[in-house]
């Protein structure tokens, strides 16, 4: 199926007759969303609408999960963000997720469909694409350690994120659809670290100093940056009994170790 094609999504849902739908698909690269605003907005907004509309047409018993994002908060004015924090997106990607959030909410209210949005903060793992900063760092560190690369260019290393492990966050998504009522939940660790902290820990893990290898490339800076994001997940902790299990340090180590293994095995 394609998010750009209503009929294809409708047919798949009609055939599979799912009990639950986890709608994670999107153009999810924040930086690329500035280069092609039109594709990002068309795919992310219409794609979400097509899935929701198919659920409405085919069977209201389906439980629907929408992958919201902390990018919806954008330029924040409060230290912590929870379900009541106003949205202030800074990218076409963030705007598309805010619209998806409201579509999801409207289908819940207008058509009484079980629809929940997880407002997930950055979640990482060794499976992360190397377009994203954490994997770019862990892969770069492994290649530098093995002598395959000399430098690692990054953009804004002062920006701060609330980074958790994807494994823990997928568990939160599932918990949301096991509830009796639907709703919106902020999911994050409640701790924030800068890109610089991530690089520092990753290089240190292999006995190197990031300052000797990281170079700053201004072309990697975003036209409008989200400087800081920090979750208050009290609602999820209380209602879903959800707790993140992986610490920042263990996340960095797991990613670097996995890339060291990859580079050793494949040699690139
Ligand atoms: N990608 C990238 N590459 N980011 C860099 C780089 C670099 O070389 N150097 C610095 N950064 C900074 C970005 O400017 C941003 O502030 C931060 O690192 C994180 O960037 P990404 O890893 O690309 O993730 P993101 O925070 O923009 O978005 C991710 O998390 C969202 C949840 O908050 C994506 O997974 C989104 O799809 C997701 O919704």
Quick synopsis:
The protein has 268 residues and is of the alpha/beta class. It has helices at residues 6-16, 30-35, 37-58, 92-111, 133-145, 166-177, 195-205, 234-240, 248-266, and strands spanning 20-23, 63-69, 115-120, 123-124, 152-154, 160-161, 164-165, 184-187, 193-194, 214-216.
Cofactors, ions and other ligands in the entry? guanosine-5'-diphosphate-alpha-D-mannose
- The oligomerization state is single chain
Helix-strand pattern? HEHHEHEEHEEEHEEHEHH
Which ranges are low-confidence, i.e. pLDDT below 50, for 5 or more consecutive residues?
none
Mean pLDDT across every amino acid position:
97
Shape: globular
Supply the number of helical segments: 9
Can you characterise this structure?
This protein is of the alpha/beta class and 268 residues long. The protein is built from 9 helices and 10 strands. A 4-stranded parallel beta sheet has the order 1-2-3-8, sandwiched between helices. Helix 4 (92-111) links the parallel strand 2 (63-69) and strand 3. Helix 1 (6-16) runs parallel beside helix 3. The longest helix is centred in the first third of the chain and has 22 residues, at 37-58. The radius of gyration is 19 Å and the shape is globular. Bound molecules: guanosine-5'-diphosphate-alpha-D-mannose. Guanosine-5'-diphosphate-alpha-D-mannose binds at residues 28, 30-31, 69-71, 121-122, 131-134, 136, 154-157, 159, 161, 195, 220, 222, 225.
């Amino acid at each position: 199926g394609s998010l750009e094609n209503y009929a294809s999504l409708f047919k798949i849902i009609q055939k599979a007759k799912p009990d639950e739908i986890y709608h994670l698909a999107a153009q999810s690269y924040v930086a690329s969303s500035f280069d092609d605003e039109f594709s990002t907005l068309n795919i992310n907004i219409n794609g979400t609408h097509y899935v929701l509309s198919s659920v409405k047409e085919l069977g209201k018993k389906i439980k629907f999960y929408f992958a919201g994002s902390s990018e919806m908060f954008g330029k924040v004015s409060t230290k912590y963000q929870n379900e009541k924090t106003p949205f202030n997106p800074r990218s076409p990607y963030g705007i598309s997720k805010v619209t998806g959030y409201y579509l999801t909410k409207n289908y819940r209210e207008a058509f009484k469909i079980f629809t929940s949005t997880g407002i997930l903060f950055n979640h990482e793992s060794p499976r992360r694409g190397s377009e994203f900063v954490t994997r770019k760092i862990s892969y770069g560190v492994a290649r530098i350690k093995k002598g395959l690369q000399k430098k690692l260019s990054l953009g804004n290393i002062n920006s701060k994120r609330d980074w958790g492990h994807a494994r823990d966050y997928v568990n939160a998504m599932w918990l949301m659809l096991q509830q009796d009522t639907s709703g919106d939940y902020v999911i994050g660790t409640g701790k924030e670290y800068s890109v610089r902290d991530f690089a520092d820990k990753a290089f240190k893990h292999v006995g190197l100093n990031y300052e000797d290898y990281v170079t700053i490339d201004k072309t990697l800076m975003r036209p409008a940056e989200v400087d800081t994001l920090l979750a208050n997940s009290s609602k999820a902790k209380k209602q879903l009994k959800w707790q993140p299990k992986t610490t920042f340090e263990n996340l960095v180590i797991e990613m670097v170790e996995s890339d060291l293994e990859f580079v050793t095995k494949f040699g690139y």
